[in-house]
Amino acid sequence: MMWWSVDSGSPADASPLLLQFLIVMAIAAAVVWFVSAPLRRGAVSLADAQIDPRLLAERDRAQLAKDRKLDEIRELRADRAAGKITEADAAPLERELRSQAADLLHKLDDAEAAIDEAQSALDARKGESAGTDERPLP
Fold this sequence. Notes:
The protein is mainly α. The protein is built from 4 helices and no strands.
């Protein structure tokens, strides 16, 4: 006697039960995936958590300043295109903004290099503490 043959012995009678089972399993899988999302994101944040927060804050400040400076350049270009400012007035302003943006890009590069250096130092320490049995983290 098969599991589906409780009453009639026909597999066709089991198809609604099987469909209900598959729907319940799909919903359960979706719930598990949704609930575990913060844990999956936490693995990325864990790597940053081991790096000096001041380095991360410096990188974030440099990124924000660069984005703001690029917005200023776009706004200046839009003003020039709209005729709010003349080409003669806009050219020196744009050169100055571009110079400032270049400085901010250098700061951002320096901050990212410092983070990479710190991450390399952490990786080296993990390698030393693990000995020869180096396994990648999941």
